[in-house]
């Protein structure tokens, strides 16, 4: 069945379906119950599934993740909401030292099938700690998988796949795109850990994920006017990366630009650029370039448009790959 | 509301909005003075201020409420990105803020606009943060108020460390000793950081007052999601005194905070004060409290308004006349007007400032990015951009 939903509503529908299909699925977090979360992603779920399954927790992120580990050991499948990206750090120890390592340490005897949902990225005019892109911290940690959705379809499908997976998954949601609408096929099936070509093109390859996919697509549309045909990928899975289709693309285009909001220093772009250089060295017409947030703390709201990659900065980087 | 029975501390579940019988109160919601009030710490509290001081507290309360209302209006008009209103918490903030002595240091959350005002911080400074112009960078050393902290509970450890430093510097033990006050909310008490701060301050006997404004809610979550016992009783398990005060009573709040700070500066260690109050407005301007609380609860608290009772008291006692009340209203109006004008006139920051102050010693990486971005911006010069 296909219907038009926003990313936020699609996540809500996906969570609802997961709760319906598996009685072990729990939702927990700050304000997720009566309020339905500050972004209303869990709206109505507590009303329909009860306080036992949709749990307003005390205000403590380490507590949320740590108790979710215990619930997972006990056979539940917790879906934890972290209210904003910048508030995941009190739980960082639980995530990188406990969640990530249970399976490895127990030689596969203990699984912690949990999902950590994080609305991430900027562009909403917020005060500090509400606009960050912490993906690299998690992608750097073996034992965690990290995915980012960018469309209503993926929001709906990926959240269910993440919940069904036995891997602990950090699930990044593009908060500034929550209200963007798109078709959702509720029966669609495709793999979770796969990148996707969202626009075919011949002249240069642009890679993005989460909120930057829309930016990359807009840049591609604008580039068309200059007679440049950009191929755009939505990476979707940040750990593990799925780069085979990207390598194939870069071998054809010879040019690649990576876009993310997170700072460039030791960010996802660095890893991707290294891998592309290793795999596509003889096809490259220019170095792989990155368009990212700056290596500064996320700035005050009135400077965030300068900080965040936008269409112009993407096109500027594309230009530079042609000027090489 | 009549003052409740001050018997055994309440047991069982804490429920948002239910009256707390076990608090220190010196001024009833009707404006009646209570002579003495015994706290859960066994101490008898009283207060004797000059008429001038009573009028001063009234003036503070009225002005900060008016400035807060102005900020809310500015947000509604798109001039601030967001605003965290203190409506309903004026007495907790003025009572504690005025109890500080000049040498004392405060660590606020993001809602202590009233405390800032009492410390002489220009109200434009927190507004620049909420406008998104900067991150509220006043100089903590100048005003003896640390910057706002948005990450819930983090400042409690900073405050504790600062207090440990006071002890190390030998600045406790006399009337001129220093003390720290640390603000946080009821929700914050669940954070590990806050509990660690309690442990540290207790073990190191730090000169600190933990001032918890229990406004009954952490966004949508009522107090019973955080605790089963009154919050002030948590102190007992950490090894220092705790007490609850009527946070809508500026006199009681002043009295208990003064005493706790003076105890701290004299080397008697930490105190936890739970100021029992109510967040009359939304959590912030992005919040919709009708989704999680009923109007009747808000109305009940309306009847315990922190300002109305002071006004009733000063009028009844003939400490203030109609002319004074009118003069304060006029002052509040003028200050709000000025604040509005200054907010509207606030320039946007220059883009390149986002590269400033990342490190005390600078960084070649940041410098290179600043340079590259300046060139990039210049490339648009003269174009339609
Ligand atoms: C570590 C962290 N987690 C979550 C948040 C989001 N958040 C902001 S305010 C708030 C509720 C705080 O409640 P309380 O401590 O009672 O203070 P109040 O806002 O009521 O004054 C939450 C959950 C945050 N700022 N920091």
Structure description:
The complex is a heterodimer of chains A (324) and B (385). Chain A is an alpha/beta fold and 324 residues long. Chain A is built from 12 helices and 14 strands. Chain A folds into 2 domains: 2-185, 3-Layer(aba) Sandwich (Rossmann fold); 196-322, Rossmann fold (3-Layer(aba) Sandwich). In chain A, helix 10 links the parallel strand 13 and strand 14 (289-293). The longest helix of chain A has 15 residues, at 7-21. Chain A is globular, with a radius of gyration of 19 Å. The mean pLDDT of chain A is 98. Chain B has 2 domains: 14-344, Rossmann fold, CATH 3.40.50.970; 351-385, no CATH class. Helix content of chain B is 41%, strand content 9%. Chain B has helices at residues 51-76, 90-99, 113-118, 124-131, 140-143, 154-168, 192-203, 234-238, 250-265, 295-302, 306-316, 322-344, 364-378; strands at residues 37-38, 44-45, 105-107, 180-185, 208-214, 217-218, 221-222, 242-246, 271-276. A 5-stranded parallel sheet of chain B has the order 3-4-5-9-8, sandwiched between helices. Chain B has a two-stranded antiparallel ribbon with strand order 1-2. In chain B, strand 6 and strand 7 (221-222) form a beta hairpin. The longest helix of chain B has 26 residues, at 51-76. Classes of the chains: A alpha/beta (324), B alpha/beta (385). The A-B interface holds A 30-31, 33-36, 38, 56-60, 62-63, 86-87, 89-90, 125-129, 265, 294-297, 299-304, 306-307, 312-313, 316 and B 81-82, 110, 129-135, 150-152, 187-188, 190-193, 218-221, 225-226, 286-287, 291-292, 348-349, 351, 353-355, 358, 363, 365-366, 369, 373, 376, 379-380, 385. Thiamine diphosphate sits between chains B (111, 150-152, 185-188, 215, 217-219, 279, 283) and A (30, 59, 61, 83, 87, 90). Chain A: Its cofactor is thiamine diphosphate. Chain A: Residues 5-180 form the Transketolase-like pyrimidine-binding domain. Chain A: This is Pyruvate dehydrogenase E1 component subunit beta.
